Input
Amino acid sequence: MGWDFSMNIDIRRMVLVIGSAIDLVGVDDALHGRRVGVIAYECAKHLGWDQKARNMLFDAGLLHDCGVSSTREHHTIVSELDWQGSQAHCRKGYELLKDFRPLAHLAPIILYHHTHWEDLPTQKLSPLVSRFANLIYLADRIDAQAMPYYTDNSLLLHVEELRTLMSRYSGTFFAPELVDAFLYASQTEAFWLALDADLVHRYISEVGGDHKKQRISIKELKQFALIVADIVDAKSHFTTAHSLGVGRVARLLAGKMGITGKHLDLIEIAALLHDIGKLQIPDEVLESKAKLTIEERALIKKHSYVTYQILQRVGGFEELVDWASQHHESLRGDGYPFHLSGGEIPIESRIIKVADIYQALAQNRPYRSPMAPADILRLLRSMQTDSELDPTVVDFVERNLDECHKAAIGPEVE
Output
């Protein structure tokens, strides 16, 4: 495989992509991680911590909930101050990042971002990790408790209530010096107004403007895609390993069609990333056994465009972004979100579309059981006849049907 290829990637933009994906889980308020990053950054500034520390905390804030995929779990996280089982998503987030070199330094912070300050000494951590993890915990709980007041624009009316609540846990949940920094920083309206939905994006653009490019290998780019795919696939037990399966099938078909090297790797990566936008769809819609309503279908149709918008932010691999976001386009021109047709749709997008359909049909869904390979092929041929799928790609499915099925339901990607 073509692992010798490497590229310059803006790591901050990569963080924003994962952070944006995580925040989609909030559905109605998709800014939790970004607000946590802003709060942590502001508190660190008042503590006199240097720019490197502030940037690290900002990134940790954006990624702190990368172990959360379900809207039900997200609701618990933003509606409770503390709860049994809060460590589960911390451990999952740690596992996602610990082996990914560009972001591995954030993994210990994420692991301990729900550990009480009074319990941290038993973990034998460095003072830096303890303070950073605890500041993310504090920022996280501030935003969670403020959540009800964002929608009705009443946040400034509840400032003292929030400050008093956090003070109550100084020395137990949170380090006293961190609570003191929060109390000092939050005296001003500016602190709270920066969290407003209309203003937080501007703040992030300014803070996030401190970009740092790193040379990463295509193997690391695949690791990044696998992190995103894991977050997406964990949204529902019905979609467990869906993106991984689509990646395997797309790679298999592309290879059989004569695509090799870096090009083959990038098709697999695009396939792994294709469903980021589905994180914004409520769990109950994805898991519905009933026929979808018009409104629910409209929600579903948003996801591929959301994928496009999020991946654009990384920069540097625009073709990959197109391939990932065009997996619901149709040769006859009535697909979504761009209504491309015929020759406007690149072969890479056509391969991912077939791989996506095949894997979904091979997987259990709330409204049907997994389909057998022959039945899947029959349906693909029907869609080809209706000018929805590329007949050449379907031909390669038929020639390699057993391999396609094993790829669709097989073991996880290495």
In short: The longest strand covers residues 6-10. The CA atoms of residues 361 and 371 lie 6 Å apart. The chain has a mean pLDDT of 88. The beta strands are 6-10, 213-217.
